[in-house]
Amino acid sequence: MIPSALEVVFLLLLKEQPLTDDKISVISQMIVQFDSFLAAGAAVGISIFWSDFAKTLRKLGLTYRKLKDELEELKPLTSNLSEKASQVVQVITETERKELPIAFLGVVSFVGSAILAVAGEMFSNEYSLVLSLSVLVLGTGLMFYSWYVFTFFGATFRQLMMDELGILSQIRREKKERIGRPN
After folding, report:
1. Confidence of residue 33 (pLDDT cuts 50, 70, 90)
2. Interatomic CA distance for residues 65 and 84, integer angstroms
């Protein structure tokens, strides 16, 4: 929606004042540079958010297994918690995996925008530049959307696991208190 509106605005502006070859050359170079910057930022962002999610998953999984092993005699309670947690984790992980192609589509949009900008300069085509800017805006939107999704699901997953670990830690404390008290 926003790229289409942007395209219409640019086309209306071009009707009033067409671009010269010199302007097309400068604008296309600026678009390519901006695409490069955003593509690098998107790639770094994807790797940071994705690796942060995986690191959190490993840490919490190790802590959870350790607590669960300590509370072996409470197997019915921990298995019920584990079942619920694994269902939630599965939903979150599947959703993140569905969103990963959208993140890569943002990077592909930046590459496509740069190609359109180069084509606009090669053929002195101002409409190619307008389309290039629209694709650039689309890619930026996809990049921010994917970052939001990765952050949201990573935070949700961390909170769910921390809640479960809190319950298991409380059970462990109560168990130690019962053992330490004389009857």
Report:
1. very high
2. 15
Across residues 132-152, what is the average pLDDT?
A: 87
Give the separation between CA 28 and CA 136, rounded to whole angstroms: 12
The residues spanned by each domain of the chain are 2-14+21-175
Q: Who contacts 100 (Cβ-Cβ below 8 Å, separation ≥6)?
A: 46, 50, 146
pTM of the model: 0.71
What is the 3-state secondary structure of the chain?
CHHHHHHHHHHHHHHHCCCCHHHHHHHHHHHHHHHHHHHHHHHHHHHHHHHHHHHHHHHHHHHHHHHHHHCHHHHHHHHHHHHHHHHHHHHHHHHHHHHHHHHHHHHHHHHHHHHHHHHHHHCCCHHHHHHHHHHHHHHHHHHHHHHHHHHHHHHHHHHHHHHHHHHHHHHHHHHHHHHHCCC
Tokens at 66, concatenated: 């350790």
The residue type found at 23 is: K
Q: What are phi and psi of 141, to 5 degrees?
A: -60, -45
Q: Which pair of structure tokens corresponds to residue 179?
A: 């053992």
104 Cβ neighbours under 8 A, 6+ residues apart: 46
Residue of 59, 51, 83 whose CA lies nearest to 158: 59
